[in-house]
Each structure stands twice: as C-alpha cells, then as structure tokens.
C-alpha cells in the first residue's frame, strides 16, 4: 500500500488527517507533519524524511501538501527528487485526501497522483453549481419520461 504523508503550514496536516479519519476511519501508513511557527525548514525536512520512512512499505509514498511554493511543498519536492517512487501533490483538500486514502491500495504513485488531481478538482465547487447539476438531471429525467 502506498504511504501517505500530509504536510502544511500551522496545524493543517494534523487537522486534515484528523478530519479525514473521522470520516473514513483510521488509516495505516499515513502521517501528518505540521509546520508551525518557530520550526526551521531544516527541522521540517528531518520530520518529513522520518515520516516518509515510517510510511513507506516499499510501494512508494505520496506527499500531500497545502500550498504550491510554500516551505512544506519545497521540502517535500526535494525528498521526492531523490526517490523515483515518491510523488508530491499540492493544493490538497479534504475531498482529495478522504477519497484517495480509500483508493490507494494496489495503486502506484503515478496513478495515485493523476486520480488525486481529478478528485481534488471535483471537490472544489459551489452550492449554485451543484444545484444546476441537480436541475439539469431532473430536466433530463422529465424529458425522457415524456417519450
């Protein structure tokens, strides 16, 4: 099973992992690495390396980060550059994390990466857009019923 490491500024990582596990249950091979104020990027790198080692069963690791270009993303990228079976995804949201935790069994890091990006995009929407989809589905159903 792919290992997952969640990282981000403040308590983003531990908060996201806690929320996801509330929804989908406790997850094996999954760690959260927070980057609170006062922690240096060197300390963050050590924590990320330790988390990756703890979560890697030999099938690879995907690191989910909060913000493109931020320190957690940059440190994760440096680690991934050293491991062919590591991937980094940024802009992580709860939709992506929850769905992908349940899908990771038997996936390789590249397939996980591609599916996760689609999942994350699907999770960013608005109430108005979701109502429009519902209305369209109802209209489609009504027009088919009249045939």
Automatic annotation (TrEMBL):
Gene Ontology molecular function: any one: kinase activity
Subcellular location: Cytoplasm
Enzyme class, broadest EC rank: transferase
PROSITE patterns: PTS_EIIA_TYPE_4
EC number: 2.7.1.191
GO biological process, one term: phosphoenolpyruvate-dependent sugar phosphotransferase system
UniProt KW keywords: Cytoplasm, Kinase, Phosphotransferase system, Sugar transport, Transferase, Transport
Pfam families (alphabetical): EIIA-man (PF03610)
CDD domains: PTS_IIA_man
Primary location group: cytoplasm
One GO cellular component term: membrane
All residue ranges annotated as the PTS EIIA type-4 domain in the record: 1-124
Record-linked PANTHER family: PTS PERMEASE-RELATED-RELATED, PTS SYSTEM MANNOSE-SPECIFIC EIIAB COMPONENT-RELATED
Protein name from the UniProt record: PTS system N-acetylgalactosamine-/galactosamine-specific IIA component
């Amino acid at each position: 099973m792919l290992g997952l490491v969640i990282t981000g500024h403040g308590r983003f990582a531990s908060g996201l992992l806690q929320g996801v596990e509330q929804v989908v249950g406790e997850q094996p091979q999954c760690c959260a690495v927070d980057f609170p104020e006062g922690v240096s990027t060197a300390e963050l790198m050590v924590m990320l390396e330790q988390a990756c080692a703890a979560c890697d069963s030999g099938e690879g690791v995907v690191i989910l980060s909060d913000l493109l270009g931020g320190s957690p993303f940059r440190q994760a990228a440096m680690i991934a550059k050293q491991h062919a079976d590591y991937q980094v995804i940024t802009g992580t949201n709860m939709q992506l994390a929850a769905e992908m935790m349940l899908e990771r069994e038997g996936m390789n890091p590249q397939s996980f990466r591609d599916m996760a990006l689609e999942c994350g995009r699907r999770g960013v929407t608005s109430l108005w857009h979701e109502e429009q989809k519902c209305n369209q589905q109802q209209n489609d159903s009504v027009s088919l019923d009249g045939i």
